[in-house]
Write a sequence for this structure.
């Protein structure tokens, strides 16, 4: 039985979407057990109209909520009755609890992961690794996407190893193609950090390093994992998401601009909706915090119930495939090779 704690509050549409996502996951996954962390009365009221296996769901009463306006570290330390704080405490204290899923504050999540759960032995810094769909129908991971603004080459080397394992375990890619985000594809391009990291990755036997990558090539589909510092990665993810969203708006505006365009839109309706559906982040889960001692998945704050459902399945899959244990083994192997 895989046991996952779901922080039921903190998102833009919580707790309704959290409850619906949990119920769907329970109905479709028979060896899943969920602990919902949040206000018991509110959660019970939402669950009253749902059909699910009550033997595989329990509520951890947590009447308080950490908001995005709270100072992350201070909130984790002082808001002890919040849904996220109590979820982290249970994850830390109960060895039977496998994973945590939340769509709450990213800063509080990082603080809780470091202060309450800790890192896998040998991991220097945990890193977020979200994925985005590519033009060739696959996925590309971005590691790191915001957990570590300042990095050194050893951090990035570990991000490459952890991210590569994640793409193997979650997406079944045998030898993920790993690229370093840079201002050019040539080996000599970039600043001192990128140049030194390039040489490290080039000589890391456990990854399939294919060289540098420019940001414009992110969704082309020629790579499986982008390695970068958290600042660059965050800009890369958000600019890509923003560009795709605005492109869809422009497409809609164009289709509505004339009678001819409207007729064309009607003929292409199924294809356009298929494209829109493919680009919907709610269908791909969240960003895994790689390097944490236990599996942690962070979904968008604006997630709907489908996104929560996929975040839960994501955490479930990573526990089934023992990602954390694999990361520990590879990091230990790296230390012996140094």
């Amino acid at each position: 039985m895989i046991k996952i704690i779901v922080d039921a509050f903190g998102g833009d549409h919580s707790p309704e979407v959290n409850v619906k996502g949990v119920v769907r996951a329970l109905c479709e996954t028979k060896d899943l057990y969920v602990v919902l962390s949040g206000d018991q009365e509110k959660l019970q009221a939402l669950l009253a109209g749902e059909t699910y296996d009550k033997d595989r769901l329990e509520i951890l009463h947590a009447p308080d909520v950490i908001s995005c306006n709270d100072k992350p570290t201070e909130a984790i330390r002082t808001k002890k009755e919040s849904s996220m704080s109590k979820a982290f405490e249970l994850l830390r204290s109960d060895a039977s609890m496998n994973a945590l899923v939340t769509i709450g504050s990213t800063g509080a999540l990082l603080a809780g992961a470091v202060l309450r759960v800790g890192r896998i032995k040998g991991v220097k810094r945990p890193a977020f690794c979200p994925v985005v769909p590519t033009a060739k129908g696959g996925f590309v991971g971005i590691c790191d996407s915001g957990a570590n603004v300042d990095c050194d080459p050893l951090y990035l080397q570990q991000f490459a190893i952890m991210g590569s394992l994640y793409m193997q375990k979650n997406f079944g890619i045998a030898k993920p193609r790993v690229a370093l985000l840079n201002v050019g594809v040539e080996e000599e391009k970039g600043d001192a950090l990128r140049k030194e990291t390039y040489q490290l990755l080039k000589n890391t036997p456990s990854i399939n390093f294919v060289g540098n990558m420019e940001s414009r090539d992110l969704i082309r589909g020629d790579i499986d994992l982008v390695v970068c510092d958290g600042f660059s990665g965050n800009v890369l993810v958000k600019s890509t998401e923003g560009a795709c969203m605005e492109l869809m708006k422009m497409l809609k505006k164009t289709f509505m601009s004339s009678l001819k365009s409207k007729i064309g839109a009607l003929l292409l309706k199924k294809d356009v909706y298929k494209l829109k559906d493919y680009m919907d982040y709610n269908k791909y889960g969240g960003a895994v915090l790689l390097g944490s001692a236990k599996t942690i998945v962070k979904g968008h704050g604006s997630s709907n119930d489908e996104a929560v459902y996929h975040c839960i399945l994501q955490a479930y899959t990573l526990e089934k495939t023992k990602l954390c244990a694999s990361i520990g083994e590879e990091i230990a192997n790296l230390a012996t090779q140094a």
